[in-house]
Amino acid sequence: MEKRSWGGTDIPAVNVLIGMIGERDQSSKIRVGTSGYSYSDWKGVFYPEDLPRGDQLNFYGTQFDVLEINFTYYKMPSRKQIEGMIRRAGSPMEFTVKANREFTHGSATPRQFSAFMEALDPMIREDRLGCVLFQFPYGFKCSDAAWKHIEMLAGKLGSIRGAVEFRHDSWISDRTFRTLADLNLAFCCLDQPDLPGLPGIISAVTSKIAYIRFHGRNRDAWWRHEHAWQRYNYLYGEDELAVWVPVIRRMVQDTERIYVFFNNHYQGQAVTNARMLMAFLDG
């Protein structure tokens, strides 16, 4: 498959479920939000200066109806933490949860995975969990052993929906899209710098949900940065987001729900771009 270049306005589509899902109701919801919400540099930019930190999630819920939870990637969550988030959110907000990095970068035990899913049980019971995202590192390249690991994770999810984010272009192939479809896993579409080894921008539909993450296009700091936030220090322009609008509307036809998240969180740029995309989608 040819890698996406930054020249045109088209984004290659791989709708492998066409014919399996078929025409969908055009009223299928598109959920737009941010990757994480608790950032100190959002105060005065997104959150009011005098807003207590404990009220931030509730405030976020007045602006967006979905949130990608990131802290679970760095630290195994507890049931109490998840219950607290649901309570503080107040509104019927939906969540997607990033799987702990032990499952994608390490060698987690079945007991750890059971504990992870047990922590998410309150969200599952209240029908607040959209899906679990597995974010694999750049060094996780396509191989038979890697596929066995993914198949194992898919089996652990049971009826919970899952999405997979690949950061190496060795995964961009027909085999990947077909296998993900067989496993009922969503391919996470990425918007990120056009650099050697990174996947191109592809709108792939491999399950009943679609998942899109905007990381920013900060080429200079992607590999060379002192702090992690520098990689995501990028504000999308209107023209850069406008090309996604027809793509997302096309993906709606083949999915039950689309999740779109902005991870360019520095100085609240994710909020700005999320609102911009929502305005475009509203016409």
- Helicity level: 25-40%
Which architecture per CATH?
Alpha-Beta Barrel
Helix/strand order, N-terminal first:
EEHEHHEHEHEHEEEHHHHEH
Major pleated sheet: 8 strands, parallel
Oligomer: single chain
Quickly count the helices: 11
- Name of the CATH homologous superfamily: Protein of unknown function UPF0759
Give the overall silhouette.
Answer: globular
- Mean pLDDT over the residues: 89
Termini Cα gap? 32 Å
CATH class: Alpha Beta
Structural class: alpha/beta
CATH topology: TIM Barrel
Q: What percentage of the residues does DSSP assign to strands (E)?
A: 15-25%
- Uncertain runs with pLDDT below 50, 5 residues or more? 1-9, 17-27
| Number of distinct beta strands | 10
Compute the CA-based radius of gyration: 18 Å
Strand order of the largest sheet: 2-10-9-7-6-5-4-3
